[in-house]
Amino acid sequence: MAHEHKLAIFRGRLKFKSNTQKIWGVLIFLTLVTAVEVILGITKPYILTHKYFIGMKLLNWIFIILTLVKAYYIAWDFMHLRDEKSSLRRAIVWTPIFLVCYLIFILLFEADYIYTVYKDGFVKWNF
Amino acid sequence: MDTSVTPAAEENVWGGGNKPLGASYGKLMMWFFIVSDALTFSGFLAAYGFSRFKFIETWPIADEVFTHVPFFHGNYPMYYVAFMTFILIMSSVTMVLAVDAGHHMKKSKVVLYMFLTIIGGAIFVGSQAWEWATFIKGDYGALETRGGRILQFVNADTGERAALGDFAASIPDVRQEHLEQNGVWYYGDDSSLPTYSLNEVVEGFKSNSNILIRTELLTDEQEKTVLTREESLEKIKDARIVVEGANLVRNEYGSRLFADFFFFITGFHGFHVFSGVVINIIIFFNVILGTYERRGHYEMVEKVGLYWHFVDLVWVFVFTFFYLV
Fold first, then answer.
1. Considering only Cβ atoms within 10 Å of each terminal Cβ, which end of chain A, N or C, has fewer?
2. Per-residue pLDDT of chain B (325 residues; tens, 9 = 90+)
3. Does the beta-carbon distance from A63 to B320 stay under 8 Å?
4. Do B128 and B163 fall within a single domain?
């Protein structure tokens, strides 16, 4: 129960005078990120939808990275993880990250394999 | 401890009342719950990714599925979901402000911010319900083929989607209605039959030369494939069922799995928001009654706050993977 808050975000580049101010600052940042996501989602710039990086469109990478950025600020500033002990923070954050990365890796590779089976194998499904 | 050699420092470590993680029991348990719930949601989203990668070439385009805004007609992809996202983030902000006011023991401010949070949550759940209703009701209608794939229709002159009603012929024939006596399935007062019979749609399609079929297959431009008139006439022979709207079995927007996961994941999230609102209301009344004022701290508000932010956190991911990617 830390009553004293760490009032700097962006690795100390942006400092706030009070916790309330920091909350509004984070809200503005999250809203901006969401707005960028929506604008990109509607316009779908050609350059981003036709460039691929590790099997996924650049645009989708941008979406996922922006989502993780949003998740970071929700967890760190709204859920006060920034003010918790680092041991608690690590236990909460790294456990799911490790398990989820493992799950995603396994499931997506398997799905891609099934996709090739459907596409190249003697399976008729699109009729 | 009976042994006399125990130094005082060790007494402090093992004597109880120690908080190695610097958080109270209740807060730790809330965090553990959140971690396990996060893994549940990750499991759902990963399963969604699995199905999507499996049918990567035929998956529905979210922009074409969620195009409606209440009280407005026309094609507005994403705006409403963006609004819902903003509402949820906003209610998260009022929640943090309530927690902050709790730290300063300002009861009236906690009451105000908790109230705003509850309102935000209610708006979100209502929007979600509307989104579901629109999705279930459907848009243009489609045909399902023998293999369970979806055929949609496009007006060749305008390039816009064509609704079944735009071209379906009117053929008087006897259609068998499913009755309750034939099986345990409750349809309510509405007819279980789609607006048009398969025959009406097929005949209407044949007599309207400007209607083309759009298949689920994505082109290189990430758009759905539109067949030529000849291909369309050939393809429509595969059609077996008229599909209007979406449910757990059929889905006019494309892959059925898309509808299944949509109902499952947004439903599970909506249930979280709903229970979050209920818990918020309980704590709200406790605050009004002065329970936490007497207790001397507002940690309960902080704990429900954690849950509420988690719900927001999950939505950020659902928003990305269902509506953006």
1. C
2. 455 555 566 666 777 777 888 888 899 999 999 999 999 999 999 999 999 999 998 999 988 888 888 888 877 888 899 999 999 999 999 999 999 999 999 999 999 999 999 999 999 999 999 999 999 998 899 999 998 899 999 998 888 889 998 888 888 877 777 666 776 655 555 556 788 888 889 999 999 989 999 999 888 878 888 999 999 999 999 999 899 989 888 899 999 999 999 999 999 999 999 999 999 999 999 999 999 999 999 999 999 999 999 999 999 999 999 998 8
3. yes
4. no
Domain contains B286 = yes
Rounded to a whole number, what is the largest CA-CA distance in chain A? 66
Q: Is residue B169 part of a domain?
A: yes
Number of domains in chain B: 2
With beta carbons under 8 A apart, name residues in chain A contacting B21: 84-85, 87-88, 91
B7 interface with A at CB cutoff 8 Å = no
Interface pTM, i.e. ipTM = 0.90
Domain that holds residue B180: 142-244
Q: What is the CATH number of the domain that holds B113?
A: 1.20.120.80
Q: At which of B244, B275, B297 does a domain end?
A: B244
* B283: in domain: yes
- Counting Cα atoms < 13 Å in the Cβ hemisphere of A82 gives 21
Which domain-ending residue is among B244, B277, B300?
A: B244
Q: Where are the alpha helices (DSSP H) in chain B?
A: 8-14, 25-54, 62-65, 79-103, 107-137, 164-167, 198-207, 229-235, 256-261, 267-289, 291-295, 299-318
**A40 vs B contacts (CB less than 8 Å):** 324
Instruction: Say which of B43, B52, B313 has its CB closest to residue A71.
Output: B313
Note whether B164 and B144 are within 8 A (CB).
Answer: no
**Contact: A103, B77; criterion CB under 8 Å:** no
> Of A40, A88, A104, which has the smallest distance from its Cβ to B22's Cβ?
A88
The answer to whether B23 and A88 have CB atoms below 8 angstroms apart is yes
Its sign, for the CA torsion A5, A7, A11, A12, is negative
From the list B43, B86, B149, the residue facing A103 with the nearest CB is: B43
Query: Position of tokens 């609004």?
Result: B83
Nearest to B317 among A40, A67, A88 (CB): A67
Residues of chain A neighbouring B319 (CB-CB closer than 8 A): 67
Indicate whether B232 and B168 sit together in one domain.
Answer: yes
- Indicate whether B104 belongs to any domain: yes
The reply to whether residue A74 touches residue B24, judged by beta carbons under 8 angstroms, is no
* Residues of B (112-141) whose Cβ lies below 8 Å from A: none
Task: State the first-to-last Cα distance of chain A, in angstroms, to the nearest integer.
Answer: 60
